[in-house]
Amino acid sequence: MTVSAVAARAEESFTHTYGTAPAGLWAAPGRVNLIGEHTDYNDGFVLPFALPQRVVVAAARADSGWQVRSDLAPEPVTFGADEVARPGVLDGWAAYVAGVVWALRDAGLPVPPARLALASDVPVGAGVSSSAALESAVLTALVELGDLDLPVDRRPALAQRAENAYVGAPTGIMDQAASIRCQAGHALFLDCRTRAVRQIPFDVAAHGLAVLIVDSNAPHRHVDGEYGARRKSCEAAAHLLGVPALRDVATGDLDAALRRLGEGPEGADEVIRRRVRHVVTENQRVLDTVAHLDAGRIREIGPLLTASHASMRDDFEITVPEVDVAVQAALAAGAYGARMTGGGFGGCVLALVDAGQAPATAAAVEAAYAAQGFPAPTAWVVNPGPGATRL
Ligand code: GLA
Questions:
Q1: Among candidates 81, 114, 104, which has minimal Cα distance to 14?
Q2: Do residues 180 and 155 touch, judged by C-beta distance below 8 A?
C-alpha cells in the first residue's frame, strides 16, 4: 500500500469517527537497521534507515481528554489525564499513545486535548519498529498541534520514555531516533551516547544495487525476557570492567577486556564474554560501514553485514533458524552481504544484492524455506524513506 493510501485511510477514519475533518496529517516510518545491533543501550553506534512504510495520524484539537481510533481495533479508545497518570491502565496499541501523552506531560509540556485516527502499513511483529513509528507519529502530531516547544533532537528521547517507562519495554534509543530523524536516501549514523547524528547518503540504486528485505515470518519467541537479559549481561560486564558502558571498550582493548572478565574473583562466564565481544566488534563494524559508505564503496559493506550476522548468531545468540536460513540462502544466491536486522528472535533479514538479482534472491530464500518446511517468507526491495513529518 502506498503512503498516500494509508494517509487517505487515516483521514477517512477521522472524518467517519468524529464527523469533522482533521486539522492535519502526520506520518512516521518504521525502520530497518543497516548495522549496529544491540549497541544502542551500550552507548554505542547504530546506522538505521527509514522504511517507506509509515504510521499516519490524522488529528485535531478537542475540548478535553484524548480519543483515538486505530485501524487495528474496532472501537476508539478514550482516556483522560487520570489514565495517563497511571501506567498499566491501558494496554495494547493504546498504551503507546497514552505513553506519549504521559512522557510529554511529564516533561512539563502542555499537551493539547486531541482526537486522533491512526492508520499504518508498517508490518507489526516483524522487527521493523511499528511501535516506535506509532509513538513518533503521535508525538509529532501532538507537538505540532499544540505548538509545543520541543526541538526535533529532543523528541526521540521522549518517545523512548513512553516505551520504557509507560509501556514497560527496556529498549534503547535507536528506533525512535530513526523514525524521527532519518532522511530519505540516507542512513542515520547515530552516536547513542552523545546523540549526535550524521546523515549518510545511502542511494544503493545509483550503484546498481538493491536492499532486499525478507520478513522471516518466524513467530517471535520470548522476545521481551531475552532482550532484557541481554541488556543486563552487558551492564554487568561494563560494571565488572569498570567502565560506564561497553562503548568504552575500544576494539584494540577487547582481548584484554575478555581476559580480565575471565580472571577476576567474580569470574565472568563464557556467555558474558561472548556478549561483550559482539557489542565491541559490532560498534567497530558500524564505524567501518560508515567509512565505506563515505568513500562510496557500497559493495564493500557486504562482508561487514555478514560478519554482524555471525556475531548475532554465535556471540549474542539472538537469531533463530528461519533468519539464519534466509541469510545463508541469500549469500548462496550471490548477495554481497546479509544479516538479521532488529532486536532478534525472528523478524527481518536484509541482503545487499545487485539490483537485477533481487527477485532471484527472494526466490532462493523461498526455496530454502520450502526445503526446511518453514512457512513462506515475505520479501520486498526497500529504499530509505523520510523520517517523521507533517503530510
Ligand atoms: C530493538 C530495540 C532497539 C535496539 C534493537 C537492537 O529494536 O527497540 O532499541 O536495541 O532492538 O539493536
A1: 114
A2: yes
Evaluate whether 3-202 and 205-382 have a shared fold. no
Whether the Cβ atoms of residue 212 and residue 330 lie closer than 8 Å to each other: yes
Q: Which atom of ligand 1 is nearest to the CA of 174?
A: 9
Question: Within 6 Å (CB) of ligand 1, which residues are found?
Answer: 33, 37-38, 40-41, 129, 171-172, 174-175, 342-343
* Domain covering 3-202, topology: Ribosomal Protein S5; domain 2 (3.30.230)
Locate the ligand 1 atom nearest the alpha carbon of residue 227 and give its number: 11
Active site residue 288: no
> Which residues 6+ apart lie within 8 Å of 100 measured at CB?
135, 138, 139, 142, 158, 159, 162
| 20 Cα–ligand 1 center, Å | 38
Strands 197-201 and 337-341: unpaired
Q: Quick check: 311 and 281 in contact, CB under 8 A?
A: yes
Q: Give the atom of ligand 1 at the shortest distance from the alpha carbon of 163.
A: 8
For domain 205-382, say whether CATH 3.30.70.890 is its number: yes
Annotate 312-341 with three-state secondary structure: HHHCCCCCCHHHHHHHHHHHHCCCCEEEEE
What tens digit of pLDDT does each residue of 3-59 get? 589 999 999 999 999 999 999 999 999 999 999 999 999 999 999 999 999 999 999
Query: Which protein residue's CA is at the shortest distance from atom 8 of ligand 1?
Result: 171
Pocket perturbation via mutation, ligand 1, pick of 174, 282, 315 by most ligand atoms within 8 A of CB = 174
pTM: 0.96
Domain boundaries along the sequence of the chain: 3-202, 205-382
| Residue 256 vs residues 13, 230, 250, 366: alpha-carbon distances, Å | 59, 22, 10, 43
How far apart are the CA of 227 and the centre of ligand 1, in A?
8
Question: What is the C-alpha R_g of the chain?
Answer: 21
- 173 C-alpha vs ligand 1 centroid, how far in Å? 8
Say what angle helices 358-372 and 321-332 make with each other, to 10 degrees: 140
Could you read off the pLDDT of 239-252 as tens digits, one per residue?
A: 999 999 999 999 99
Can you say whether the dihedral through the CA atoms of 39, 40, 45, 50 is positive or negative? positive
Per-residue H/E/C for 151-169? CHHHHHHHHHHHHHHHHCC
